C-alpha cells in the first residue's frame, strides 16, 4: 500500500466516516458495531503495525498496542480516543460523517466529527508508526499506543488500560495525550506561534443544586416556589465566581512567552512574580480561555423543574459543571458553593468528582523530547510552553503510573477550529494534519 500524503488523507477520511459516537454508559445493550468496524478497518489500513505490534482489546472496545523496543524499561505511551461526541446534522454545513474535502491543496480542510477530537491524533499516530515499521526502524524503548473508546463520557476504557499496565509493572517515562495545540493570538501580544503543552489538567465535578416544595397547581403558587429559590441560588453562584489566582504552570507559560511579546506586556509578563496579582484580575475580561486559566469555574448547564406547564415543581434542580484549578479540591469547591448560595434549604450534592491532576515538570528529558519534536516537525519558530489543560482527558488516569504526563495535540489550530470542537463544522486543515504525522515520527525516533 502506497504511503503518500494523498493516501494518508484517504485513510484518515475513511476512518472519519465510521460513526464511533460514544456509547451510553448506562445502556448495557448499546450497539458497539461501529467500534468493531473501526477496529477491523485499522487492521486493514495499517498492515505493518498490526503484523509487528502486539494488540489487545481492553474493556470491550479500547485498544492497547505494544511495540517492543530494544529496552522494555521507561516506555513511551501515545494516547488518543476512538469515540466522538454526537452530532446534530442540520447544524452542519457538510455531512458530519462524510469527511468531505473542502478547498484545494494545502489549504484544503477535512470536515468531520472527530477531525480534531480525537481521530486526528489517533490516525496521525498510526500513520507515523506504519511508516517507521515499514522503514525497519526499531525504537530504543517500548512504545505503547493507548486508544480509549469512551473518553467523551468519562468511561472506563483508559482506566482499564492503566490497570493492565500497572499489573505488568509498566512505568512510562513519557505519556502524551490530546490537549493544547499550536495557536496564534490566544495570548495577548505574543508575536510567535505557541505550542501550549498541558502539564496538568483541571479537575471536573458535577454538582446538583436542588430546591424542594410540596407542589400543587400553578394557579395558586406559594410566596417562594422552588423554582424561584433555585433561580436565586443560580444567580448568586454566577455573580460570585471563584477567586482568581496564578498557578505555577500559568506563571511558567507567561515567563516563557515574555521575550516574544510586543510592547509593555513583555515587561509585565517577564515580571509576573510581581504583576501576577493584577494580571489575574484582568484576564477574565479578555476571554473565556484566559479566564479559565486563572480560576476554578462553575457554570449551570442543566435545569429541571415541574412535569407540566401548569404544575408546581416538587423539586427544581440545577446541574453545575465545576472545573477545579490545581490547588482547589472537590471539598473546598463544595464549601465555597454552599457559602455563596447562602441558603440552607438548597441541597448541594456532589454527583461525580475528579481532582485536578498532579503537575508534570516542564524541564528534564521528557519535556525536552517534546520540545525537540515540536520544533523539528511543526516549525523552528514555534515556541513550546507549559499550559493548564482546561478540559479533562483520559490522561489523568495515567498520572497514577507516570510522573511525566503531557497533553498536546500537534496541529496548528485557528480559533475557529478550536471553537468547533464539540460543536458543528468540526474540521482540520490538511497541511496541519500532515505535519502532525511528522511530529509523532520525530517523537518516536527520539527514543
Number of domains: 2
Number of strands: 17
Task: Give the end-to-end Cα distance, rounded to a whole number of Å.
Answer: 27 Å
Q: Which CATH class of the largest domain is shown?
A: Alpha Beta
Just name the CATH architecture of the largest domain: 3-Layer(aba) Sandwich
Using the alpha-carbon principal axes, give the shape.
globular
Number of helices: 14
- Give a short account of the largest sheet: 8 strands, mixed
Return residue spans where pLDDT drops below 50 for at least 5 consecutive residues: none
The portion of residues forming beta strands comes to: 15-25%
User: Structural class given helices, strands, pairing?
Assistant: alpha+beta
**Helical percent range?**
25-40%
Average pLDDT, rounded to a whole number, is 95
Classify the fold: give the CATH topology of the largest domain: Aminopeptidase
Say which CATH homologous superfamily of the largest domain is assigned: Zn peptidases
Spatial extent as radius of gyration: 23 Å
GO molecular function: metal ion binding; peptidase activity
Keywords: Hydrolase, Metal-binding, Protease, Zinc
Protein name: Peptidase M20
Family: Belongs to the peptidase M20A family.
Secondary structure layout:
Elements (H helix, E strand, L loop, with lengths): L4 H12 L16 H13 L1 H6 L1 E5 L3 E6 L8 E6 L18 E3 L6 E3 L7 H16 L8 E6 L8 H11 L6 E10 L10 E8 L1 E10 L3 E2 L8 H14 L8 H10 L7 H6 L1 H11 L5 H6 L3 E8 L6 E2 L2 E10 L5 H12 L5 E8 L10 H14 L4 E7 L15 E8 L2 H5 L7 E3 H16 L2
Helix pairs in contact: 1-4, 4-14, 12-14
GO molecular function: metal ion binding; peptidase activity
Pfam families: M20_dimer (PF07687), Peptidase_M20 (PF01546)
InterPro entries: Bact_exopeptidase_dim_dom, Pept_M20A, Peptidase_M20, Peptidase_M20_dimer
Amino acid at each position: 500500500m502506497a504511503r503518500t500524503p494523498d493516501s494518508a488523507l484517504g485513510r484518515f477520511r475513511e476512518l472519519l466516516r465510521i460513526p464511533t459516537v460514544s456509547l451510553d454508559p448506562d445502556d448495557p445493550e448499546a450497539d458497539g458495531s461501529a467500534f468493531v468496524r473501526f477496529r477491523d478497518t485499522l487492521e486493514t489500513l495499517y498492515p505493518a503495525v498490526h503484523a509487528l505490534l502486539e494488540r489487545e482489546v481492553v474493556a470491550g472496545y479500547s485498544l492497547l498496542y505494544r511495540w517492543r523496543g530494544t529496552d522494555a524499561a521507561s516506555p513511551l505511551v501515545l494516547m488518543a480516543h476512538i469515540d466522538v461526541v454526537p452530532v446534530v446534522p442540520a447544524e452542519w454545513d457538510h455531512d458530519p460523517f462524510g469527511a468531505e474535502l473542502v478547498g484545494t491543496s494545502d489549504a484544503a480542510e477535512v470536515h468531520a466529527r472527530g477531525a480534531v477530537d480525537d481521530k486526528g491524533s489517533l490516525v496521525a499516530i498510526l500513520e507515523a508508526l506504519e511508516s517507521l515499521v515499514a522503514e525497519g526502524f526499531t525504537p530504543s524503548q517500548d512504545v505503547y499506543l493507548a486508544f480509549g473508546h469512551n473518553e467523551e463520557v468519562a468511561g472506563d476504557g483508559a482506566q482499564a488500560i492503566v490497570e493492565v499496565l500497572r499489573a505488568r509493572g509498566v512505568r512510562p517515562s513519557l505519556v502524551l495525550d490530546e490537549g493544547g495545540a499550536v495557536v496564534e493570538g490566544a495570548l495577548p501580544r505574543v508575536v510567535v506561534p505557541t505550542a501550549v503543552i498541558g502539564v496538568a489538567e483541571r479537575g471536573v465535578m458535577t454538582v446538583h443544586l436542588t430546591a424542594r416544595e410540596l407542589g400543587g397547581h400553578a394557579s395558586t403558587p406559594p410566596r417562594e416556589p422552588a423554582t424561584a429559590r433555585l433561580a436565586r441560588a443560580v444567580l448568586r453562584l454566577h455573580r460570585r465566581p471563584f477567586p482568581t489566582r496564578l498557578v505555577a504552570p500559568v506563571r511558567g507559560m507567561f515567563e516563557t512567552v515574555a521575550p516574544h511579546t510586543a510592547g509593555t506586556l513583555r515587561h509585565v509578563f517577564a515580571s509576573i512574580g510581581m504583576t501576577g496579582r493584577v494580571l489575574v484580575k484582568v484576564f477574565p475580561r479578555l476571554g473565556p480561555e484566559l479566564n479559565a486559566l486563572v480560576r476554578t469555574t462553575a457554570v449551570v448547564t442543566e435545569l429541571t423543574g415541574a412535569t407540566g406547564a401548569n404544575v408546581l415543581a416538587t423539586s427544581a434542580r440545577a446541574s453545575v459543571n465545576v472545573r477545579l484549578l490545581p490547588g482547589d479540591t472537590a471539598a473546598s469547591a463544595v464549601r465555597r458553593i454552599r457559602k455563596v448560595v447562602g441558603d440552607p434549604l438548597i441541597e448541594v450534592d456532589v454527583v461525580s468528582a475528579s481532582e485536578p491532576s498532579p503537575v508534570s515538570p516542564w524541564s528534564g528529558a521528557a519535556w525536552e523530547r517534546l520540545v525537540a519534536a515540536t520544533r523539528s516537525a511543526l516549525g523552528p519558530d514555534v515556541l513550546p510552553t507549559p499550559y493548564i489543560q482546561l478540559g479533562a482527558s483520559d490522561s489523568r488516569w495515567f498520572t497514577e503510573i507516570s510522573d511525566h504526563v503531557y497533553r498536546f495535540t500537534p496541529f496548528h489550530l485557528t480559533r475557529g477550529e478550536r471553537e468547533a470542537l464539540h460543536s458543528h463544522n468540526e474540521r482540520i486543515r490538511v497541511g496541519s494534519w500532515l505535519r502532525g504525522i511528522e511530529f509523532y515520527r520525530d517523537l518516536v525516533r527520539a527514543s
